[in-house]
Amino acid sequence: MLRQVLSGVFLACAVLLTAASAGAAPYAAFVMDMRDGKVLYSKNADTRLHPASLTKMMTLYIAFEAIKNGEITLDTKVSISRNAAAEPPSHLGLHAGQKVRLRDLIRAAAIKSANDAATAIGEAISGSEAAFARRMNRTARALGMTRTTFRNANGLTQAGHRSTAHDMAILGRALFYHYRQYYGLFSRRKETAVGKTFHNTNRKFLAAYRGADGIKTGYTQAAGFNLVASARRGQKRIIAAEFGGRSVAQRNKKMARLLDLGFRRAPARAPIIPPPLPVYGAPKKVLVASAVKSSPRPMPRPVRQQIRPVMTVQTDPMKRAINRAVSVAVASSETESRRQRIAQPAPTPRFAIRDDGQRVVTRMSSSGGREWSIFMGAYPTRTQAEKVLLRTALEDLSSLDGALRKVVLRRGRFQAQFVGLTEGRAKRACSRLLIWRKTCQVIGPTG
After folding, report:
1. Residue 106 class from Cβ within 10 Å (0-12 exposed, 13-18 middle, 19+ buried)?
2. Catalytic annotation present for 230
3. 56: annotated active-site residue
4. Torsions phi, psi for 163 (to 5 deg)
5. Using an 8 Å Cβ cutoff, are 172 and 230 in contact?
6. What is the pLDDT of residue 256?
7. Range(s) within the chain of domains with CATH label 3.40.710.10
């Protein structure tokens, strides 16, 4: 009798140990200085494992890229497919045929980690989840994620869908530098979309760790509890990736230790070296088989009038700062124009009359298409309007590059505007500003 009892106990223990061994995911960790990309700690960081919902970081990266490229807008209404609606939890509970704005799908994927929202994003951008996965892999290679292969947009377990702690830290850092305007999404504790309020899957760590401001959790039975986290203290910013945690509490505890280690090892000061933007492919080189028979003299470069902004003496510090910013923007615009129109005759400069009667150069274009503007609101003083324009321009240099800031007094209030934009650039810039909940209205040419 005793022998039978002991045998049963041993058998039960063996079953439990086998189940635990089979279900336990390997642990991997990676810590990086966000400022310059220097590696601070690594453990199994290049082992290919299941990324789970960390995958959605790439889905969101491509969504932001598509918005930037004008492929889609935040207010595009996406039709939910049967495939997306059938995705298992975590999900938003979307229905086939339902129309949902892209901005709501992005919020749900980033904060709730909704699988149906992530799949819908991929299908809206690439037409199918398989095509979107190919784009994900192309982007991963361009970012330097050498050991990652994506098979879907949400991270549910699928054969061959693997990544590493190292690669996910690279992706998190790229999100921070390339799409800083959207990064605040990852630190929101709760959000509302399609009439539903949901909480951040990472809210416990965000609340517990000082300086934490993102970025994404992930869990499946095969992957365990994964997390990519970023935190800032003083001049230091650290990002860490962790795969294979056994529980939320254990994962968060280990992540806190990883970030603490990063802050201890990171120097007080480090250069800010953003990762390069992805470059997709390269132009093919054409090989000439025969020898060159003649070498014609190149045509002389056309002489183009050098245009400089009118500089006036200002005593107000804010106006001096705005003039300096305008000078930089004009210089950048001239450099770009010199590259693009090197063989064209000099265009006729266009002028506008300022409120104080001075004539200033507003545009050097003969295309006639840069007549769109963005209205940023009306303010009681000129200084307030100038501050809004300067702050907005500095926050979003990419989409507002080349636009000029203009303040107009109308009906006793000072209207802040960005002028000299094409229709496409004005609409793209305004869509980016709206996600920050800023006042923004696109105004077309008045004739």
Report:
1. buried
2. no
3. yes
4. -155, -175
5. yes
6. 98
7. 24-265
Share of the chain above pLDDT 90, in %: 57
| Residue-level pLDDT at 302 | 57
Which fold does the domain 24-265 belong to in CATH?
Beta-lactamase (3.40.710)
Give me the pLDDT at residue 301, please. Answer: 58
Q: Which long-range contacts (CB under 8 A, 24 or more apart) does 6-9 make?
A: none
Q: Concatenated DSSP letters for 248-267?
A: HHHHHHHHHHHHHHHHHHS-
Name the 3-class secondary structure at 191.
strand
- The DSSP bridge partners found for residue 162 are 149
- Asked about 373 being catalytic, the answer comes back as no
Separation CA 87–CA 199 (nearest Å): 19
Q: Where in the chain is the domain with CATH 3.30.70.1070?
A: 317-341+348-443
Label the pairing between strands 39-43 and 77-79: unpaired
Q: How far is residue 116 from each of residues 86, 148, 418, measured CA to CA in Å?
A: 7, 22, 38
Q: What angle do CA 364, 368, 369 make, to 5 degrees?
A: 105
- Give the pLDDT means over successive 10-residue stretches in the chain (447 positions): 44 39 75 98 98 98 96 96 96 96 96 97 97 98 97 97 98 97 94 92 96 96 97 97 97 98 97 94 49 57 48 46 51 48 42 43 46 86 87 74 85 88 84 73 74
The CATH number given to 317-341+348-443 is 3.30.70.1070
Q: Which of 81, 90, 113, 399 is catalytic?
A: 113
